[in-house]
Automatic annotation (TrEMBL):
Belongs to the major facilitator superfamily. Phthalate permease family. Residues 22-422 form the Major facilitator superfamily (MFS) profile domain. Keywords: Membrane, Transmembrane, Transmembrane helix. It comes from Luteimonas composti. This is MFS transporter.
């Protein structure tokens, strides 16, 4: 029994772990990305009083971010496919960091809408770049786990923001909270440009690990236009699932602090611990969801069965959120929402892996961009809807009902459009 275990450990050591350092850089970038976008969500209940915007106007501010994010995702995937991850990622973080800090200059609804618009444009580059990097650095069987790890940065950012932002805002003013992440972005950018290279050009990468990374069957290197990608049902499966479930995560990010403030009377400092609990659970869900599918694959399950079983388990975790809107106890609501955020992030770790499962590496950025565009359009719709809903009824229940059903419906759509998760044959016309 000990000999095979020792051999397995020796084989892992011989292959090398450099690709996981790359994954750590993606985790850091995603964390910074979500800190930047979450600052407004944490401060929203209190900026609303200071600046005087209505629920509908706050919905418009969120919609401005979503509109730019949608536009950016349409362009970001293709730009990153063209420029490569090293330069494409660097440009994205430059744009979103400057935009994040520009919030400190805003003093009106229009000012915040402009700042959010440019933040959305820059932040749109993060996931296409990160997922393309995963496709370049990991064999297919490791991609869901690697995606789950870097995607957990969205939860780490959402954890750090409610701990950091209130302290900075109360001691130095709310403007300083928007400026604080500039230093983190500068350090990441310098490290990325000095250190990152594609696997074939990275001198620190061993030949054994490069062979491991390239152990999947070779893929064609020709450029594929959107028109050919969108002829395939696999693309629409990803696009539809993003459209249906991304808006729920946007709601969590931008309205949970307002929900906890209005429904449970939490102060700026009081928001910290409940939001940390919610997003710690989301972090666990992100890593576990990616690990679960990988575990099923290692047990001999097909990619189709493994991915969809993991996605079903995650979708079921979101269903109980329908009871959170009317929970009288704060911690009952927090745990129900935390279970839902864990389910969403586990779902996303698997959903975000589908483009690299279903399409060649050189098209992953474009496919992710198209799906992200659809998710951002859905986010625009839920932002405007939520603003009008709260202004007229003050009730969060309809949004929580939507959240509880969205993931199961999305999984059904994915299964109908891609019943076996077979890779798209972009060299031949799809079946009618």
């Amino acid at each position: 029994m000990s000999a095979p275990a020792s051999a397995s450990g020796a084989a892992t050591a011989k292959i090398g772990m450099y690709r996981w350092r790359v994954c750590a850089m993606l985790l850091a970038a995603t964390t910074i990305n979500y800190i930047d976008r979450q600052v407004l969500g944490v401060l929203a209940p209190f900026l609303q009083d200071e600046i005087g915007w209505s629920e509908i106007e706050y919905g418009y501010i969120v919609t401005a971010f979503q509109a730019a994010y949608a536009i950016g995702l349409l362009c970001a995937g293709a730009i990153i496919d063209r420029l490569g991850t090293r330069i494409g990622y660097a440009i994205a973080i430059c744009v979103w960091s400057v935009a994040a800090m520009s919030h400190a200059l805003a003093g009106s609804v229009i000012g915040f809408m402009l700042a959010r618009f440019f933040l959305g444009l820059g932040e749109a580059g993060n996931f296409p770049a990160a997922l393309k990097t995963v496709a370049e650095w990991f064999p297919r069987r490791e991609r869901a786990f690697a995606t789950g790890i870097f995607n957990s940065g969205s939860n780490i950012g959402a954890i750090v923001a409610p701990l950091m932002v209130p302290l900075i805002a109360l001691s130095l003013g709310w403007q300083a909270a928007f400026l604080a992440t500039g230093v983190l972005s500068a350090v990441w950018l310098a490290t990325w440009l000095l250190w990152y290279r594609a696997p074939e050009r990275q001198p620190r990468l061993s030949q054994a690990e490069l062979a491991h990374i390239r152990s999947d069957p070779p893929e064609p290197a020709t450029k594929i236009p959107w028109s050919r990608i969108l002829r395939h049902r696999q693309a629409w499966a990803f696009v539809a699932a993003k459209f249906m479930t991304d808006p729920i995560w946007w709601f969590f990010l931008f309205w949970l602090p307002k929900f906890l403030h209005s429904e449970h009377g939490l102060s700026l400092l009081g928001l910290g611990v409940p939001l940390v609990v919610i997003f710690v659970l989301a972090d666990v869900g992100s890593i576990f969801g990616g690990w679960l599918a990988g575990r099923f694959i290692r047990l001999g399950w097909s990619v189709n069965r493994a991915r969809k079983t993991a996605m079903l388990a995650c979708a079921l975790c979101v269903v109980p959120i329908v009871f959170a809107a009317q929970a009288e106890n704060l911690w009952v609501a927090v745990l129900l929402i935390g279970l839902a955020t864990a389910g969403h992030q586990g779902w996303s770790a698997n959903l975000l892996t589908l483009p690299s499962d279903l399409f060649p590496r050189q098209t992953v950025g474009s496919v992710v961009g198209l799906g992200g565009f659809a998710g951002a359009v859905g986010g625009m719709m839920i932002a405007t809807f939520t603003g009008f809903l709260l202004e007229t009824t003050g009730s969060y229940l309809p949004v929580f009902l939507m959240a509880g059903s969205a993931y199961l419906l999305a999984l059904l759509v994915v299964h109908r459009l891609a019943p076996r998760l077979e890779p798209a044959r972009l060299d031949v016309a799809p079946a009618p």
